[in-house]
């Protein structure tokens, strides 16, 4: 009796890990039902989204209902899944070669894999309203000049800073160059203020620094070339790491940042919200997370774009970020695209009014009321270049290696050269 | 799970109230004629028939996933599209070249050694203490056992708060004790994260082992201890030469469960540190999760899972064959109950 119990335990552990493969094969049976027109002219299609939290949770079904009311012959079957659950279910569905008619996408590497597998509809020629969308918001869904998705949200990463703490250190204008930035960090330290809050435990916030530095030093084309050639060892990338090391050597982060989470108690957002650190490099969601985890800084919170690096080719109005969009399964009914047009163009003001999304339609930023959102939307509207989050732009294995290696660099365990070598290695074996 | 764990350990402990030396042989002899009755074809048929549901479940949920995992481990597969890139043993070669994975095994060993040398003696000590007549001992037993009932995730979140840099209870405590050097480290420093993790593991699991030991202690007949007293044995000698040997089967089971638990440790670590800082608290199960569900390198993750499984399996078989041999009759590795 005692002999069977422990081995069953180890089996259980194993079935836990093989559950992935089992669920992959099991899910083959499910997947997209046969959408499209039936004999009586009725059309139905599937729509997978990730709106399980407010405001999308109530807004998305409203939009679908409104669309069906206007088109009585169309039926939308909605499936809403939590972010991670959606990703694993979509992965399972993809491996069986079937996708839902309309599905959530973040563009980048995953979308490219789906496109390469011939599963996604090329909508370049039928998307006659693309000119109404901001080019920045469309970029993540464009692969080799063809468009495979429609955005409904877009955001970017930049420095959120505490104006009061900056004033305390005698810094009146936010830094515009890397040298000024390092100087600001020094002044903040001298004034007894922790310059930067960083969630070292979660790794992805750290990769923003390296990615932005690579954009500023090596430039956007270099990042795209590196992804294609799978070679990240170019001098621009090494230099990006060296610049990050300059920052790390100043010890700008809060004490014990290596164990800090992002939205957890005592984490990066809480340190910012509670005024314990002067700035954080984070996406457009930062103010609301600060409010939840710590306190609302209100008018003391400011935003400035990532500084340029002296001698680098990148410009200050090139942005790093990501958003959300929808793509169509190859062969999805044409009514599905109608729905996307309705969703994005006619409901933009509703999406913006819900205060959960940023504008993808040109000129819509004037509808924003929230001061922080206005700043971000303004920067996005002026943007001359866009780079998707590296862990979305690249295949998952490469993106995770960027996160891991940069975390090692920040902890002093890897040199800038070793970071570029590790990422290259991961890219070549992915 | 607690009930199924308690059952096997109660078994040997209870049996020992009878004659210790003949315990293995006694149940075997009446079983022989019973077995020959079943040798008829009809007997086998009905046995097979009754086994079908269990066998089907075992095949679908235990054997099939293992076979699938082994199969996947020979491929380079990103989870998208068909599995076509057969790479043979490449994933395994890469695995044993991976410094993080080699570190995983070292950290597993570290936890095993500490569990056996610190956690189990501590559990035994408390068990002996609470086996005596003591005011409120039921309350103490319950208190010490309570952490085991708590879910792993709840425990981990709780200790994340305790070890929170700056505001956490641990930092205040360290400050009050004059250990300022420890403040802000705990889970956030590569040099302290493993000992801190072990403290949490001990807090969580020692109560369970204490309960096992208590059950074992209660199976030791009073007369034996009384006889030792009459022979002039002092308290230490009674413990060393009477209690400890009679507790042998329970201790061996405890060691076994500790080792398997340490090898497969996942949830506590995942929630508290996610394997960090910089892989310094990563376990094999965490590496597997990282590669399987974060990097979507399913083939490589399967290879990790297979190695993890083989280590657990080989250990289990050897342990049963050479250590638990005296405690278990009829186990698979004893070669037919020898």
UniProtKB/TrEMBL annotation, chain A:
Residues 1-26 form the signal peptide. It comes from the Bacteria. Transmembrane segments: none annotated. InterPro entries: Bact_solute-bd_prot1 (IPR050490), SBP (IPR006059), TAT_signal (IPR006311). Keywords: Signal. It holds the Pfam family SBP_bac_1. PANTHER family: ARABINOSE-BINDING PROTEIN-RELATED, BLR3389 PROTEIN. This is ABC transporter substrate-binding protein.
TrEMBL record, chain B:
Residues 105-319 form the ABC transmembrane type-1 domain. Residues 12-23 have a biased composition (Basic and acidic residues). Residues 1-30 are annotated as: Disordered. The chain crosses the membrane at residues 47-70, 109-130, 142-164, 197-220, 241-266, 298-319. It is found in: Cell membrane. GO terms for cellular component: plasma membrane. It is a multi-pass membrane protein. Belongs to the binding-protein-dependent transport system permease family. This is Sugar ABC transporter permease. It comes from Streptomyces viridochromogenes.
């Amino acid at each position: 009796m005692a002999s069977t119990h422990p081995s069953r335990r180890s089996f259980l552990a194993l079935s836990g890990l093989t559950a992935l493969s089992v669920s992959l094969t099991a899910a083959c049976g499910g997947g997209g039902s046969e959408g499209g027109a039936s004999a009586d002219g009725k059309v139905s299609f599937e729509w997978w989204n990730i709106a399980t939290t407010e405001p999308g949770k109530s807004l998305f079904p409203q939009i679908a209902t409104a669309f069906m009311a206007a088109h009585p012959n169309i039926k939308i079957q909605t499936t809403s899944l939590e972010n991670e659950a959606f990703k694993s279910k979509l992965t399972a569905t993809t491996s069986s070669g079937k996708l839902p008619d309309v599905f959530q996408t973040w563009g980048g590497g995953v979308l490219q894999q789906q496109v390469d597998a011939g599963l996604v509809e090329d909508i370049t020629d039928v998307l006659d309203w693309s000119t109404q969308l901001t080019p920045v918001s469309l970029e993540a869904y464009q692969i080799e000049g063809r468009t495979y998705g429609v955005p409904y949200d877009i955001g970017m990463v930049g420095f959120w800073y505490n104006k009061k703490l900056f004033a305390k250190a005698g810094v009146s204008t936010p830094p515009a160059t890397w040298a000024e930035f390092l100087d600001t960090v020094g002044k903040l330290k001298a004034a007894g203020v922790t310059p930067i809050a960083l969630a070292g435990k979660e790794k992805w916030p750290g990769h923003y620094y390296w990615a932005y530095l690579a954009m500023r030093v090596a430039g956007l084309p270099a990042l795209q070339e590196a992804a294609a050639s799978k070679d990240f060892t170019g001098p621009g990338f090494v230099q990006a790491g060296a610049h990050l090391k300059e920052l790390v050597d100043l010890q700008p982060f809060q004490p014990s940042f290596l164990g800090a989470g992002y939205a957890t108690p005592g984490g990066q957002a809480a340190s910012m919200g509670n005024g314990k650190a002067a700035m954080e490099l984070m996406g457009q969601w930062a103010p609301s997370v600060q409010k939840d985890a710590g306190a609302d800084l209100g008018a003391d919170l400011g935003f400035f774009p990532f500084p340029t690096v002296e001698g680098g080719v990148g410009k200050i109005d090139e942005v790093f970020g990501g958003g959300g969009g929808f793509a169509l399964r190859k062969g999805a009914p044409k009514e599905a695209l109608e729905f996307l047009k309705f969703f994005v163009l006619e409901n933009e003001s509703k999406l913006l009014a819900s205060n959960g999304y940023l504008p993808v339609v040109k000129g819509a930023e004037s509808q924003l009321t929230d001061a922080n959102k206005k700043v971000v939307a303004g920067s996005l509207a002026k943007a001359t270049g866009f780079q998707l989050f590296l862990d979305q732009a690249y295949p998952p294995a490469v993106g995770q290696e960027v996160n891991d290696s940069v975390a090692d660099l920040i902890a002093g365990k890897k040199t800038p050269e070793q970071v570029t070598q590790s990422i290259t290695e991961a890219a070549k074996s992915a | 799970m607690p009930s199924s764990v308690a059952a096997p350990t109660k078994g040997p402990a209870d049996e020992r109230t009878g004659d210790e030396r003949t315990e293995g042989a006694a149940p075997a002899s009446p079983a022989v004629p019973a077995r020959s009755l079943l040798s008829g074809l009809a007997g086998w048929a009905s046995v097979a028939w009754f086994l079908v549901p269990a066998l089907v479940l075992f095949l679908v949920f235990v054997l099939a996933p293992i076979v699938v995992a082994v199969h996947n481990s020979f491929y380079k597969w990103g989870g998208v599209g068909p599995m076509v890139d057969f790479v043979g043993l490449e994933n395994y070669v890469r695995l044993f070249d991976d410094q993080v994975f080699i570190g995983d095994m070292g950290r597993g060993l570290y936890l095993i050694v500490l569990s056996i040398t610190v956690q189990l003696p501590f559990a035994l000590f408390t068990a002996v203490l609470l086996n005596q007549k003591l005011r409120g001992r039921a309350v103490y037993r319950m208190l010490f056992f309570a952490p085991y009932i708590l879910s792993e995730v709840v425990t981990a979140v709780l200790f994340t708060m305790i070890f929170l840099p700056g505001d956490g209870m641990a930092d205040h405590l360290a400050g009050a004790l004059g250990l300022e050097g420890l403040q802000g480290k705990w889970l956030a420093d590569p040099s302290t994260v493993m000992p801190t993790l072990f403290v949490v593991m001990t807090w969580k699991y020692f109560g369970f082992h204490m309960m096992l030991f208590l059950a074992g202690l209660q199976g030791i007949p009073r007369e034996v201890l009384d006889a030792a007293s009459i022979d002039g044995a002092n308290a230490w000698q009674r413990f060393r030469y009477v209690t400890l040997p009679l507790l042998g089967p329970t201790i061996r089971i405890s060691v076994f469960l500790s080792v398997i638990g340490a090898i497969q440790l996942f949830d506590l670590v995942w929630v508290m540190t996610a394997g960090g800082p910089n892989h310094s608290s990563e376990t094999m199960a965490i590496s597997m999760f990282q590669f399987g569900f974060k990097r979507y390198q399913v083939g490589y993750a399967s290879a990790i899972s297979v190695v993890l499984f083989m280590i657990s399996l080989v250990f289990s078989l050897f342990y049963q064959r050479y250590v638990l041999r005296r405690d278990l009759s009829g186990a698979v590795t004893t070669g037919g109950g020898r």
